[in-house]
Amino acid sequence: MTEAALAPAARQATPFELDQKRIARRYAAERRFRAYGLAAIALTAVFIAVVIVDIVGKGLPAFWQHSLTIDIPVSAEAVDPSGTRDPAKMATEGDFAVPIREALSAVFPGNTSRAQRRLLTGIVSTGAGEELRERVMADPRLVGTTVRMSVLLSDDSDLYFKGQETESSTIAGATALTVSGTAGEVKLSAAAASAFAPALAAAGLPATGAVALDSSKPSVLVAVNGGIVKLATVDGSAATGTTLLPLKSDGAVKAGDWRTVIFMTPEANRRIGDQQAAWLDALKTSGQVERHFAWRLFTAGDSREPELAGIRGAIIGSALTLLVTLALCLPLGVAAAVYLEEFAPKNRLTEIVEVNINNLAAVPSIVFGLLGLAMFLNFFGLPRSAPLVGGLVLALLVLPTIIIASRAALKAVPPSIKEAALGVGASHQQAVFHHVLPVAMPGIMTGTIIGMAHALGETAPLLMIGMVAFIVDIPSGLTQAATVLPVQIYLWSDLPEQAFQAKTAAAIMVLLVFLFIMNGLAIVLRRRFERRW
Amino acid sequence: MVAGYLLLTAALVVVAMVAGSKRAAGLMTAGGPRLHSLPSYHGFQASIAVFVVMLAVLVVGVTVERQVTTAATLSAFDTGVAADPLRRGAALRDAASLADGSFRGEPSPELRAAAAALSTARSATGWLMIALGLAGGAAALLLSLRTVSSDYRARNRVERFVKVILMAAAGVAVLTTIGIVFSVVFETYRFFFDPSLKGRPSVSEFLFGTQWSPQTALRADQGQTGGAFGIVPLVAGTLLITTIAMLVAGPVGLFAAIYMSEYATPRFRAFAKPILEILAGIPTVVLGFFAALTVAPFLRGFGESLGLSVASESALAAGLVMGMMIIPFVSSLSDDVINAVPQSLRDGSYALGATQSETIKKVVLPAALPGIVSAFMLAISRAVGETMIVVMAAGLAANLTFNPLEAVTTFTVQIKTILVGDQEFDSAKTLAAFALGFVLFFFTLTLNVIALRIVQKYREQYD
Q1: What ipTM describes this predicted complex?
Q2: Inter-chain contact A44–B252, Cβ cutoff 8 Å?
Q3: How much of chain A is helix, strand and coil, in % rounded to 5?
Q4: A219-224 and A210-212: which strand pairing?
Q5: Which residues of A touch B163 (CB under 8 A)?
Q6: B79-137 pLDDT per residue, tens
Q7: For the domain A312-529, what is the CATH superfamily, name and number?
Q8: Residues of A in contact with B165 (CB under 8 A)
Q9: Nearest residue, CB atoms, A54 vs list B259, B279, B290
């Protein structure tokens, strides 16, 4: 008992210390809470940055395109079978794909089999014949001559040059090499056993023993004597292969005068095979391939071929649609806002209209598409896919936004302005239309521009009224079939061709630029004309 | 023809404006009687009279023209064509395109005759319409010029007309709602109760069926009825994606709003608010592209590295991106309600020694709770009705599952899938889309109405 009494009692924390601890805990909680808030905003910022970087990264390559400059013999028998030199007749009877094929065959002779010729014509766009047709239509004297012109490469060739088909690496030959044969099956024998080892290592293949290379493995090509040999087997210092481009000579080659090229993606997984890659590289080496800005993206309508497809049709369609929307919802929205804010009696009916407008602003946009389909297309029989109907639907969609923004702008005008006008004898309408409305106009315009930006990005309701059709022609009227920019983006994003992915991202970039311009305009307008009373 | 008529109308309206005001101004002589209305109101009065008359002639004229030209065109074909709706439509289209010069191919003599008849009928009715319009407009102009006098109350008449126009504009919003309700309710009624419709389900099959496959129900030879139109998998899919979205947008949006309204300095606000506005301004088709081509493959790869099998159109990808989409929505609404909490409540809490976060958690948020709840409800309704992100990133197959790694489908995806492309209006499949639209519309409407009510009540509480 005495022991326990004498032992120093376990020291108790004083109330002051307890307080200190608790305060520290509470302050830590405070800091954590603040950090959560900051993290939430940071997360949003990071998300936007990731989205924009991702889309710009994907879309930027689509703003450049590769073309091939080539001499095309425009033979009369192909393009003008009737011999009349009449452009109208040539347009229907002439086969302008033939001269393109002949031009390519002239550059790479000896590809006589059907499959080889198809591969060869496959490196240029199927629209190349069309380009030639236009050129010849404009100047029929070209028939029978050789035209040097630049034609678009196919989307796959384009991707190959952009490095999106396969990773490739080049290794200079370190030892002397002997080549037997110049075309077809050839044998290569190197002076040292390890001659091909670096190439095989780069391709991720075992460098010892006999290695068979097939289309499921990376491709190893040897560029030697102005030709290209695709290796089929490698066994130490000896290798066999087939020529993709015939060699100029055979025999011994010094070290450093040959090199191996490795395509990492197996040929079976590529759209551009080794043969086409060899041709493309040869064309590039001879300076015939040119990289240029893809003007076509802005000058062409839609197409099934990625290299030919453009967004001009969609931009014009969007412009026409927005024109209808603006023409409808600006007067309607302002009139409705003026009525509700200035003239409407405070009664049940007005209240219903107000609640209705607020609810309409929150109705899912796809429901407006159902309205357009059931009412405008089926009931009133308006044309499908037309900017007129699209504009009508979007006008109804953004009308509540514009009414709400316009009412806010009208409400912000101090009552003294109206009262002064009334005081000097203006009628109620004169006071509103001559004095209140002009002052509220900047606010109304800001709201309208934001509503228009919303309409420009809207997709879902337009899908319902048939603006998803595949439309090649640039629309020129309000009742013609058209599509709009966001719908074009949706359509392209669904296509399997890899090149369309970049096109989609490029179209998104264009759409975002338009939206930034519109929103920027709204902000400028607000800054410029906003008045504090 | 119509464009010409409209130009003519515009010209006559301007003439009436000038003539009316000139005539009224002519009455203003020194020492003469004072005009009740300014001359411009007499002008307005005249042009309104001209415009209304000419517009009426146009509306009647266009309707009559359609009837007359159709009859004239069909008279060139044999009677069988007029009776068969398909051939009738094709014949009318061909004749119209031939008359416009856009016909491709070699027209038959019959078609040539029809196109000729169409052109004659068109120009005849067109000229008649213009003549009648001119006559009516001129008459209206003369009549209103005769009424111009010093004590004629032109301003009051014009203002009454303007007021009617303004009221009509406000009525458009109501008409839109009526149009929406009418179109979805009417087609939905046909979907359930039209006896001529093959394969229509009963209401309970629709609401409680666990199978959704509108494609199989279309095949007439199979005679499959019911069972294929059960919306339970769609409800589950929509719910799953909305839940994921709200799990993202709820906390992030709320914390962002709290920080913006309680902690942020004005400078930080000026920088952070545009970020949220930019996110709100990105079109959903862009976010859908991002979800489908970046987020979904990333989640798939990430899941595979953990040994999970993730569907390439997983609910998770669509839900996450949709959550990011509605963050600005949640945060701006919550920001408003938090700002509406009176400062006196905060001051009282600080006076008792609470820290700022304790004040927020224990005082501000409970006070703002009704508003925050309604903000969340509006956000849910936005997520349920969102289309493009799920169309691009979620699946088509109606799987009844709550696994976020699998593909699910939603109401909006099914509506879009059914209605895109050519559709006949008499199949159960097409009408099913309207039934889905009906459910979607009334679900979101209910959420909105309740949420707006709560906000209103709550505002009144602190006002």
Answers
A1: 0.87
A2: yes
A3: 55, 15, 30
A4: unpaired
A5: 339, 343, 429
A6: 777 777 677 777 777 777 777 776 767 777 777 888 888 888 888 888 888 899 889 98
A7: MetI-like (1.10.3720.10)
A8: 335
A9: B290
